[in-house]
Amino acid sequence: MKKKIMGAFLATFMAMSMLVGCGGGSTTTSTESNVSDSVESSDSASDEASADTTTGGGSGKIGVAMPTKDLQRWNQDGANMKSELEAAGYEVDLQYASNDINTQVSQIENMINSDCSMLVIASIDGDSLGTVLAQAKEKNIPVIAYDRLIMNSDAVTYYATFDNYMVGTKQGEYIKEKLDLDNAEGPFNIEIVTGDPGDNNARYFYGGAMDVLNPYIESGKLVVKSGQKEFEEVATANWATETAQSRMDAIISANYADGTVIDAVLCSNDSTALGVTNSLEANYTGAWPIITGQDCDVANVKNMLADKQSMSIFKDTRTLASKVVEMVDAVMKGGEAPINDTETYDNGSLVVPSFLCEPVFADKENYKELLVDSGYYTEDQLK
Ligand code: BGC
After folding, report:
1. Contact indicator for 355, 340 with CB cutoff of 8 Å
2. Distance from residue 257's CA to the centre of ligand 1 (Å)
C-alpha cells in the first residue's frame, strides 16, 4: 500500500517536473510567433517573475549578451532574462549580435567598461571570447555561460543549460522507437543534420543521438544513403535554415530522386528541421520521414500539428532564465550559485560548475499539456 502511494506520489512529481524542467520556472506568459514582437512581450513576464522568484533586493548592472534575434528562442531567452533580472532589482544591458562574432566581442567589451557587475553570455562561437573575458577576469566580473559553453577561458564562473547530451539522446530514442528498430526488419534510410561547429552544444546533441543510432547504422538496420555521417559532414554553419535546406536538396537529388523512401531525418534543432522540411516539400515524393527538432519554435510546432515534423525537444526558456537569475542573484549577494553538475563540461581550461535543466520531447500527442496548458503558447499562436 505504502509503495503504491509512494508510486503515485513519484508519478505526480515526475509529471510535474517534466513540465518545469529544472524547477523554479515562473509562469511567464506568451511567446509570439513574430520574433521581434516576442521581445516586446515581456511586461507580464516581469510581473509574474517578481511574484514567483525568491530573488529580490538586488542592485547593480548585469550584461546579457545573446547571439541573434533571428531565432525565436534567443528573443525569448533575452526577454525572460531581462524581465526577471529587473524584477529582482537589477539593471540590465541586453545585447544581440546578429550572429557576428566581432559584434559580440565588442558588446561584451562595452559591458565590461560600462560597469556591469556580472555577465551572462550565450556565445556565438564558444572559442572566440577568451581575450575579452580575460578583461572581465581582471576586473573580477563573474561570467555565466548561458546555454552554450564558452571554451578555453578560465574566466567562466558557471554554466547553465539544458542537458545537451540528453537532448541528442532523446532525439535518437524517438527515432529508434518510432521505427521500432529493435523489432522491425528494416533496413531504414536515415539522413543526419546537425548544428554549427562553433557551438559546443552541437557536438553534444550529435553525440547523444549518434550513441543511440550508431549501433543500428553499424548493423545495417539504418542506412545513411548519402554516406554523410561524421560531425563535420553533417554540421550546419550558423544553424541556418537555408544551409540545411540546400544540403538536403543535394542529398535528395543524389540519393532519393528515384522515389527511394527516406524513413527518418535526425535534425538537431528546429531551424535545421525547417530547412529539411522545406526541401522535402519541394523535391521529395516518397512517404514523409520522421523528423526531429529542438526548441518548439512556433513554425515547427505548427509543422508538427500538420504532420510535417514529428517531434521537437522542449527547453522551456522560462525555466532556464529563472535558474540563471537565481544564480546571478546568489553570486551578486556574495554567495555561490546553485549547481548540479561538476563533471561534464570541461571547457579546456577548467571543468565549469554547471546547472543542467532537463529537456523533454514534445510531439502531437503531448504538445497541448506541455506547450499550451503550461502557458508557453496560446492555442491561437499555433493556428
Ligand atoms: C541551442 C539550441 C538552438 C541552437 C541554434 C544551440 O546552442 O542550445 O536551442 O536551437 O543553438 O540557435
Report:
1. yes
2. 31
